[in-house]
Amino acid sequence: MEAKFPGFLRASEWLTGEKKEAFAFFYALLLEYNKKFNLTAVTEEKDVYYKHFYDSLAGEFLFPQGAACAEIGSGAGFPSLPLCIARKDLRFTLFESVRKKCEFLQIAAERLVPGQLKVCCLRAEEGARDAAFREKFDVCCARAVARMNTLTEYCLPFLRLGGRMIAYKGREEEEFSEAERAIEALGGKTEQIYRYELPQGYGSRTLAVVKKIRHTPSLYPRGRGKERKDPIV
Question: Using only C-alpha atoms, what is the Rg of the chain?
């Protein structure tokens, strides 16, 4: 189901109001560590604010109050870090397999949002098979990680019944129909598709919301790269 997009109601206020200094510090930190860790190709201030910060905050309205959240393939911390700067009630566990990125995430978490983020230097498919993480989260999100059918296999095992996967995507329209079989097999149901345009001509985006309605079969995630090499179709 496609829905009208309400996601920009507070994003500008956070970036220019009381959270302005925190986002400025995050930008400076990103530039500092990008020289060593190659975290992002987007480095111009305006580009970072719109492509990374604004886009991350666009999905804020989908995160319930006090939600326990998992993020898959965190990279430089989008959308988790902007969301935590904006929302002190959110708690995130980040799954990132690249050690240098984990180092940056740990530093950023301690300096920007102490107590809100836990960084796990672990592949998503390994974390999802750990009883400490499997079906424990209210929300599992990811941004620019994988095609929708692969991403579903990474994310849905982390969700409790009634939890939601939030996928930050571009406008890859074919991905959503392609992923329906995977979503059903993994215990989910597509709830909403939100399409929106970033301000200042910064591009078209989509937020796909999948609700967990059944337990994910123990077979999934399959691991050993099968989620990417042989996605459910």
Answer: 17
Rounded distance between C-alpha atoms, residue 198 and residue 217, angstroms:
37
Taking the C-alpha atoms of residue 139 and residue 119, their distance in angstroms, rounded to an integer, is 16
Structure-token pair, residue 100:
């240098």
Helices (H), 96-147: 99-112, 124-127
pLDDT of residue 225: 84
| pTM over 0.70, yes/no | yes
Instruction: Look at strands 137-143 and 68-72 and give their pairing.
Output: parallel
**Domain CATH for 29:** 3.40.50.150
User: What domain range includes position 139?
Assistant: 2-229
Residues in the chain: 233
Quote the number of domains for the chain.
1
% of the chain residues with pLDDT over 70: 98
Sheet containing 204-212: which strands, arranged edge to edge?
2-3, 188-197, 204-212, 159-169, 137-143, 68-72, 91-96, 117-121
